[in-house]
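User: My instructor asked us to take a sequence, write out its structure as tokens, and then describe one feature of it. I'm not sure where to start. Here is the sequence I was given:
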Amino acid sequence: MRALVTGGAGFIGSSIASALVRRGDDVRVLDSFLSGFRENVPESTELVEGDLRDPEAVRSATKDIEVVFHQAAIRSVPRSIDDPFASNTSNVNGTLQLLEAARQAGVRRVVYASSSSVYGDSADPLRSEDQRPDPVSPYGVSKLAAEMYCRVWTVVHALSTVSLRYFNVFGPRQHPESQYSAVFPAFVSALVEGRPPEVHWDGEQSRDFTFIDDVVAANLLAAEAGPAVDGAVINIGAGRPKTVNEVLRSVATAAGRWTEPVRLPKRPGDVRDTLADVSRARDLLGWEAKADWDASVHETVAWFATRAGTSH
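Assistant: Let's start with the prediction itself. The structure tokens for your sequence are:
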């Protein structure tokens, strides 16, 4: 396969690029390095340094490509609230730019990284793809809009697309982005550095934390799946919710240290509970999460500890 990974210097994108390289695929990476790191890009890949919003960079990146793994985005809910225009131009306009370039280049399929944020909040934590999306943040709106563009390009232009709705991905290479960090890297980096972790709300809000290896496997399956996935949206989650307080305890156990957390108010855009219904992923992709929770937490903490120069 000749593949393009957008955002291939980031957490999820570089993990996909590395998996493709390991199995012998020809890989190109498009990244602006606004948030990604050069050290994450596998050495054997072809690198196009550029922004999704730059038509020339996107056209160059999609030339002679069979499958695009579209991971590039501004991913933070809090950041989207602080700067909704940046989230929209990157996540919506950038995706539209990519879809049109992919169509013109004759790309076979675009696998798009969507998000459980499109669902918003509801009394029932179980999220099914048949549920009406109801995002409660600009980030969720941007991911839903890009999903719909993917589906329309499939319907109107016969460009095969499949949107994977990720549920709270965690693992090695995830970057703690100061106040915009996801809960997992924020906890790990705080504990390994001896700082008190921050817990928003009461910590009893639950998320379907999904290990990076399972997300990579879902992307590879989506790239090779048959036409039944064309234009589809598919949940990718572990099916195993954990509260924020449970995550903190697991991280502390793996790190071998405990620091009493700072309790902070609920953040705008936060939802109470999320849990993925993954029956469609099983049916259409033959995929299910395989990662063991404790082993995944230990692997993630070990990676952060090594980066911090800390043993545990």
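For the description part of your assignment, you could build on this observation: The longest helix spans residues 84-105. Try explaining in your own words what that tells you about the chain.
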